[in-house]
Amino acid sequence: MLRRAFLASAPLAAQLQPFRFEPAEPFPGSPILFSAAEGPLAGTWMNRPLLFERDEGLKRWLALAAVSLDAEPGPHDLLLGNGQKHAVRVAAHAYRTGRLTVPPKFVSPPKAVLKRIAEEREIKKAAFAERTRRVWAGPFAPPLDTRQTAAFGTWRTYNGKTQSIHHGLDFRAAAGTPIHASNHGRMLISQDMYYEGGFVVLDHGEGLFTLYMHLSAFGVKHGDLVKKGEEIAESGGSGRVTGPHLHFGVQWQGLYMDPATLLALRFG
Ligand SMILES: [Zn+2]
Q1: What are the structural domains of the chain?
Q2: Which of 178, 175, 243, 246 is nearest to 210 (CA)?
Q3: Lower CB count within 10 Å: N or C terminus of the chain?
Q4: Which residues lie near ion ligand 1 (Cβ < 5 Å)?
């Protein structure tokens, strides 16, 4: 059973497993870390390209991806370039709903800012279309060490009107709290945006991005390479918020994933 692949206890047995993945029960909106004994290897998952690259510590070939929030529970095929096919069972998952109240200008933006919003949408679109070489390595680290206050995937109603899905994980953070890079990456966006407020996007390669919102100060510039754990910004309460906090998002090739599940992956 593929789903039980990570239960093997002996490290040697784990090393010899031809193929496995983590978490044991992926669900709509979860990350999925594929691990193969042999490589390099190309693949296709959720109609998107995957590249298995060597992890020298693990002596295995890894590819990190996401399960679409829209994915139906049940088997989904991972197609590999060597002709193999693995059926991965996606488990059902229930997300909560919530209500929030924000300043009215964030629910019905005034005409004067529509151009700005449209321009920022294009900047994000271009950024998330970047496909660079992988620079992430090993587990992802929390951007700060505080309590998580709002989970990923909640259906939110703003001011009783606009509905949207919460595409990230919120951390408690007083304004001015140092924010750290979750993994090695390249600074792709660092600017103020209407909804996101102070906004940083790191490109980790192969279509994987981490997003940091509502910031009050930037520590690095566009194009800078940053190391995992390096301070990249300070938190704040800018953009569409009810108060200061850090919103941390993770996107893979257009799909948002649950950051809490990513942070819990063992990469073993
Ligand atoms: Zn948030």
Answers
A1: 2-90 (2.60.40.1590), 97-264 (2.70.70.10)
A2: 246
A3: N
A4: 168, 170, 247
